[in-house]
Structure formats: structure tokens, C-alpha cells
């Protein structure tokens, strides 16, 4: 029997250090809609600027109730993603969010083609992704920054926002 399905695949050999990140923002309180609507357009605008190393940016809708939106991004490599995360305006968004989540929750999961995965969940009331099956620990100390969590000691592991800036 012949198939009617057009099966295709991709050749990722030109992307040996491909890094994929999923991000989500969930409205936890009604006033969180304002926070979500404030960040959404800014994030879209930053992706439209095509930062170095960003290969693709895709918006996602996780659920309507509670409102939970997100993005999937493909980066050439982890250093490109980290350089953008440490630049403005992302660094300021992240600092401000970590000081006050504004009635929302935020999470991300990062996957590296050469191995390594990491995640963080900030004010997310329900376990999702890795947290739904793996032990959950405070994102403090060695687990504070994403580069350290992903287990890349040769990368610059300084977090986007210093732990001391949040906890003193």
C-alpha cells in the first residue's frame, strides 16, 4: 500500500551546537494579564531585531485558561543565547521579573544538541516539563544560573542576574 504522507526530515549537520529553548509565561492572578501584555510585544520586537545567533523564534499558546503563552527559539549555540540573555533589554526584563513576577509565572527549558538540558520554574504553581517527573530543588547556589545548570563548565557561567542582587 502506498502512503499519502509526505514524510520529511532535516539535516542538522550545519548546526553542531544547536540550542533550543522553550519559554512560557502563565497568568497566576488577574493582574498578571497586564504583566503578560507588557512583556509580549517587547519579546516579539527583540526577536524581530534578529540578535546574533537566533535562527528561529516561534510563538506558542499553551492554554487560554489560565492564560499561558510561550515561545520556542532555536539558537546557533549556547554562547549566542547567553550573550543575548546578558544584554539589554533582556537582562533588565529578567531582573525586574525576578524581583516581582507581577502575578505571572515564568519557566524555560533548554536543550543542547551535544547534550545537556536545564530548566527553571519561577512562580509556576503546577509542575510541568522536567519538574513533573524529576526532583525539584531551589534555584540557588550552583543551580542559580542556566549555564551552570546545563553543565557546561567551559562556558561563561555567570548568571544574567547575580544571585546576590536578589537575595543580598
> What is the CATH architecture term?
2-Layer Sandwich
Order of strands across the biggest sheet?
A: 2-3-1-4-5
**Unreliable spans:** none
Question: Number of folding domains?
Answer: 1
Order of helices and strands: EHEEHHEEHH
Mean pLDDT: 93
Work out the helicity level.
Answer: 25-40%
Give a short account of the largest sheet. Answer: 5 strands, antiparallel
The CATH class, by name, is Alpha Beta
Explain the overall architecture.
By secondary structure, the protein is of the alpha+beta class. It has a single domain, classed as Alpha-Beta Plaits (2-Layer Sandwich), CATH 3.30.70.100. Helices cover 26% and strands 25% of the residues. The chain has five helices and five strands; from the N terminus they run E-H-E-E-H-H-E-E-H-H. A five-stranded antiparallel β-sheet has the order 2-3-1-4-5. It is globular and about 60 Å long. The termini are far apart.
Fill in the keyword field for this structure.
single chain, 168 residues, alpha+beta, Alpha-Beta Plaits, five-stranded antiparallel β-sheet, globular, DUF4188 domain-containing protein, Monooxy_af470
Chart the SSEs and their pairings.
Blueprint: E1 19-27, H1 32-48, E2 54-63, E3 68-75, H2 78-85, H3 90-99, E4 104-112, E5 117-122, H4 146-149, H5 163-167
Antiparallel strand pairs: 1-3, 1-4, 2-3, 4-5
